[in-house]
Amino acid sequence: MQCVACQSKIDPGDNWCSKCGEPVRRSEPDSERRFVTILRADVIDSTGLIAELDPEEAVSRLEPALVAMRGAVRQFGGIVSKELGDGVAAVFGAPIADDNHAPLACHAAIELVRRVAGLGDAGLQVRVGVHSGHVVAYMVASEFSKVYEMGGPAQHLAARLEAAAEANQIYVSEACQALAEGHVRFEFLGGKLLRGFSQPVPVYRIVGASDLSSWRVRRARSVSRFVDRATERALLARAAEGAGATRQTVLLLGDAGIGKSRLAHEFAQAQKANGWRLIDAECSPNLQGAPFSTLKRFLLTALDTIAKGTESPTDPRRNLPEIQQCALDAVLDVPISNQRWSELEPHARGRAISDASCAVVAAMARRQRTLLLLEDLHWIDRASDGVVAAIASLPVPGLLVLLTTRPNGMPVWIARCRAEVVAMRPLDDDSGLEMLSDMLGSSATNADLKSRIISHTANVPLFIEEVCRGLKDSGTLRGEWGDLALVRPIDELGIPSSIQGVIAARLDRVPKQERSVLQVAAALGARASEATLRNISLLPEDALRGCLVSLDRAELLVRIDSELEDSLEFRHEMVRQVTYESMVEKVRDDIHARILATLESDESRADEPDTLCYHAVRAKDWYKAFNHGRSAGRKWLGRSAFADAANYFEIAMVALDKTPATRMREIDAIDLRMEARATFIASGQVAEWLDLGKEAERRAGAIDDIGRKVAAMTVRAGAQNFYGAPVEAVAIGEEVVALAESSGHPGWRNLAQYGLGQAYFLAGRYRGAKEMLATAGAHLAGPAASAPIGTTPQSLLVLCCMMGSITHTVLGEFDAAEQLQREAAAIADETGRPYDRVAAAYSGGWLMLGRGDAAAAATVLEDGFVLAQKHGIRLFVPVLACHLGMAYLEQGLFDRARRMLTEAREEARAVGYTSAVLRSSIYLALATNQLGDVRAAQNMLREARNTARQQGFSGLEAEALFGEAVVTPPASEDRTMILAALRAAIAIASESGAKPLREKAEAMLNSMLAGGDQLA
């Protein structure tokens, strides 16, 4: 940016040219998303004030209040975006970002109320609303004016707060209060019902400005201790040593949050303990426009320090010439009666102020070694800047001047005073982890989270602390500082609102062309190649290289070592996110469309459909999003990453539904759901699986496609086996098998027959299940084997063999079960698919349990359980866990069995697997009984038996009845109950053909009838 008058370079944050003093004229900003604070103020009952006045009189009546409002807003760096006749709408933090936008807006509101009250007009009373949030900022130009306008819900909340406020009161939202806390004092008013909001909104009232310095506010929020900085501390120690011979000046330079203030204050307190006099002051963003505001704060601190000193307090002003005493009084706002001072030219007064200030500092340094700490030079007022330059150049022994500033505020005079500039960098990884261990605790369970935070924040101390605070405030981390536990998974660490402005302010220093390159890189992701940026950025080669050099130097987009390509990556993820979120939707869409076109033309990207899908969705190219999403779903399905595959198929479904409605679109939509079913099945999303079938069936009926309707009904029938009562599953299964056979779709017929066999099994109709599964298996093993889209004949045959082996085991036909189990294992070994291997392990464990070899069953089931969890095959997790618990129970490992069966039941409930909930409950009751809680076991079994009977799970009803007989104490009063349960179990097992269960129940019954009282 250049000055329009003298062409000198101007930093984006400056309001005037440092060379000629000309006000900065900024170019019109593009539309962009911003995180800002909005202030709304108006005169109460303005209509009543001017209703009977002439138009000119009405304007004159309200104009003083409007002038006061404008002045207060501008004093604190805000922009009046709109005048409303009797009030103003103003914004803080735009068009140039400012991380202090919320405190500035609050101070402006306080000043606004004070100024209007100071007009002395009792009829002019104002109310103010202030809110911080995201907006879309844009310039609205008309024939006569231009207005910097804000769009979005944040404007409305600010307006509602204004309308709710009482006379001369300032109402603030919770978001604004959280950002300004410490800088301003608030009173919580509770939740208020505001127009347009369905729920009460937390509201705060400003009760006054805080007298805390920015450092004290930050320090009060801090929950971490000072770590590392050994190099910088050693340099400061050398400077303190050198100050014995002559004045030393050190400037700590770094972006917000890097730790300048923490280092400076830690060092200053150490020096104070060593006998140094400490004078600390800071430049305030609230007073940047007030002449000598920084110098005044410094002098007040210095005089207060002297007054509290251990030596006899001597006011250093006494030995100054009279005119210099007047100069200091002028800065300190002390009334001056000296005529000579009044007669001095402005330039001479400025020189007197500078000389007097230097004389005070020199006198203090001669009396006692003095450390002068002045923070945040980037906010210094222009009048104080020259005086501080003179103080920092004083040739006085015993004086150490320590300054801090951000890169955009480094004084032009710093080289003249021979200052040592220390460029502050982020912490190293070890120090970042030390800081995190101090806040989160040293437990290894948080190791992965700590690594993610290090990567996310690039070890910037403030960012580390605020991310941790955000996780704790949201309840994601629970406990006390120093001992926090992660209680729920984290998808994204996000960007706390407290540091969004810090990053945005840094990005606003980036020239427009470099910003455009940064935006493309942000849309590409955390890492990008220079070649890809070249193709997408549309910049000439020289211009692009210049931008990349500048961005690398600024440590925003840095070049990294890579053997494969010339790669660039964001210094930390938060910079990328803020860059990306600053773009309005239209700009984002355009960039993603260009990225998509570039990547599609690159043949090496053909195996990256997930990346192409991401950019197609962001570009809102819905047909391409459908195609790439389907390809990505197939890719991850082929790798047995079922949850990821389901996610991409879902994206493809949503994208396809956003394309124009045609018959072909509906066909694609049905086929996509049929293909996607396998991912939802494996990942245990039973309700979604059922919905796929229902939705596909509805669409097939709408376009009168019988073949696809059969397919959809088959999918729905399969889901019904897990999500409902067996009677419903059997009814729809028999219907769909008949339809599939008559309509000539062998693949869907085979799947429907497998599903019906499973439904018969769940209903306790084991003989029917054996026959139906054998029929399906014969079709799948034959030369014309066929399977529907989304699976293969081999994979479907594995399931048929698995289910057939389980059925034969329940029937007591162990040789037939063994033969089918070997077939399932052989196919699983051949395909190597995790899903097939898990299925074979499940039936293998069931068979070994049926034969009484619990230890071998446990080994097989443990392998299957681990494999299912590793590959996200969630549908099998509850049944594997259940049978593993049963194996432990058979081995006498009762406590272990209880834990595993509890996990099985909870997982079955989460998946929606009804029969697995019942079976795990039955055997959990048996484990509970063995551990001594008979009453709990009886209640659990009674509930399982009733549920199984009501829903038609007759096989499970028989198992529950037998379990009740086992856990009921064989006392004389309970004997009838036990006998009834055994006879009922025998009757059901006899009808269904469950020979092993029937034999166990008969043996127990015979023992009871023979008078035995020791029941197995």
Automatic annotation (TrEMBL):
It holds the Pfam family Guanylate_cyc. Keywords: ATP-binding, Nucleotide-binding. PROSITE patterns: GUANYLATE_CYCLASE_2 (PS50125). The keyword Phosphoprotein does not apply. The keyword Ribosomal protein does not apply. One of its GO terms (molecular function) is adenylate cyclase activity. This is ATPase. The lineage of its organism: Bacteria, Pseudomonadati, Pseudomonadota, Alphaproteobacteria, Hyphomicrobiales.
